[in-house]
Amino acid sequence: xxPSSCDTxxxxxxxxxxxxxxxxxxxxxxxxEVQEVVYNPASDHEKGATVECTYITIDQVCHTYAVxxxxxxxxxxxxxxxxxxxxxxxxxxxxxxxxxxxxEALLGMDLVRLGLERADTAEKAVDVITELLQKHGQxxxxxxxxxxxxxxxxxxxxxxxEAWLLETSSKYWAAERVESGYRNISNQYGITTKIDRExxxxxxxxxxxxxxxxxxxxxxxxxxxxxxxARIEASGSRYCEGxxxxxxxxxxxxxxxxxxxxxxxxxxxxxxxxxxxxxSMVSVVPTxxxxxxxxxxxxxxxxxxxxxxxxxxxxGVGPTKETCSPTYGADDPVKKQPRFQSKPDRKHTxxxxxxxxxxxxxxxxxxxxxxxxxxxxxEQNKIDQMEKIVSEGITEPDYLVNLFSNCVQExxxxxxxx
Length: 418
Hints:
alpha+beta; eight-stranded antiparallel beta sheet; 18 strands; 23% strand; dipeptidase activity; Secernin-3; cysteine-type exopeptidase activity
């Protein structure tokens, strides 16, 4: 299967407006897959507790941080998300010389969620993910069917001061620190000769496989990628387009800039077809520790026809029930053996409403334009409100408790009037 999956971006000062880090990602997944946005509060766990991930059960830690996640509804992990400390993580599918086929283990999406739940800085998330990778490995179908669609993972991780690019091949990995400027990743290895941290046996393993002679300067992408780049041509094109879009706004990147990049269809970043952008996220994370971060999520496909809705971590945050999919417990076909013998209805309330309106936008030009204008008006109103909060701090905490849910309700009210 061609590598059609995701673009992730991060911009740091001085490429951004103000002392802020801007994170963004399109989650490109099968076009019929539902992506939900869920909030999980911080929690304490008893000694010896375990956590059931998508395919395997692992040891739980004593405390997990509050997280907001955008995730395919059928699995435990997440495509992207943030935690209460301003850590943001998105992952990408990557393919290289090492086979990604193998036994079920942790999915890259499981590692995203585990990193957010267990790390209060970006570098600690690198530690969490690589230690879990070493202990449990990565593997298992990444689609809700029997296709055996598997891949290794790269991760773009940011916090309030820096970002890290982490790329993996089986249990081996390399990581690069990003302290300023901007960085984007697509479905190809991007770490070359600047390697700030790495698996202790990563180079020796490459030499033992004949991929590296042990003498020339070590280049992670060259050594661990395919000999031919034909399979990753599409992702390479998106990577270059994304980099150019970031460069175009270098020094003035804002949340709106990142949203516009994620909506760009000409570049292929806003993907259409059998794989499409099924969920999108933009985060604004001030470097000032006293200022709140704002995380915007669509919870619906195609950011061009979606509203980026804000979420802020605050005491008493309410549930995101309109963007939570139905659950099926032990009866879920994902949990039964053999897996994926059927597909239940995973559409959440917002998804179903948005699906009907998207059909109107597609088939009725004038009517669709008016709906889109109302959606953009709602979004801009929320961006303006959040800008004041990020700049001045939180003055009305009660208003923020149901911030995301209330915005979802306002979005659905637009659809119902349409």
